[in-house]
Amino acid sequence: MIRFIKIYSLVIILPLIFSESVFSQEFEVEKKNDFWNKVHFGGGLGLNFSRGYTQISVSPSALYQPNSYIAYGPGLNYSFQKFGDYKTSLIGGSAIFLYNPTNFLQLSTEIEQLRVSQSIDGEPDIPNFWNTGLFVGAGYRLNIGGQGLGAIGIRYNLLYNDNDSVYADAWLPFVRVYF
């Protein structure tokens, strides 16, 4: 009888031990691969042309979305503008935080640091400078690729001043798309 209990115990306990270690290993593999499933890429691209005016901008970015409510990540910014003899280049980076409290609303906070280089043909060099923007925004969420990270909305630069030569106004519309 004792021998039967020992064998019966082994038959019950051994599969549980092995099944637990198998599940643990599967969970670890799943956990490692899960990071890239939560990373999304996107950004913006702008081209404007008219008589004597050219504007080109490229702003790639990436987001990490740990759950359906928040996402955050870095971005790069480059913009070139030429109007007659006046040229300006903006290059820098940004960090963004998105909060999705509902299915249709996206709130955002973004900090942006840009190096500004300007020149006018035939004039003395204009000194380069740094421009910082701190934006808060709200937008209507777009369900692109089932992620709900895209949005159309407006943002406000909390650090804007009237002497700002980078932005014409503190209010800026935006379109965000992430895949």
Q: Notable features of this structure?
A:
179 residues; 8-stranded antiparallel beta sheet; Porin; alpha+beta
Helical coverage, percent range: 10-25%
Oligomer: single chain
In total, how many domains does the architecture comprise? 2
* Annotated CATH architecture of the largest domain: Beta Barrel
Query: What string, H for helix and E for strand, traces the elements in order?
Result: HEEEEEEEE
Instruction: Quote the distance from N terminus to C terminus.
Output: 64 Å
In round numbers, the mean pLDDT is 83
The first-level CATH class of the largest domain is given as Mainly Beta
Shape: elongated
Strand order of the largest sheet: 1-2-3-4-5-6-7-8
Describe the structure concisely.
The protein is an alpha+beta fold. The protein has one helix spanning 2-37, and strands at residues 39-50, 53-64, 70-83, 86-99, 105-120, 129-142, 150-157, 171-176.
Fold topology:
Layout: H1 2-37, E1 39-50, E2 53-64, E3 70-83, E4 86-99, E5 105-120, E6 129-142, E7 150-157, E8 171-176
Descriptive account of the structure:
It is a single chain. The chain is α+β, with helices and mostly antiparallel strands and 179 residues long. It folds into two domains: 1-37; 38-176, Porin, CATH 2.40.160. 20% of the residues lie in helices and 54% in strands. The chain has an eight-stranded antiparallel beta sheet. Strand 5 and strand 6 (129-142) form a beta hairpin. It is elongated.
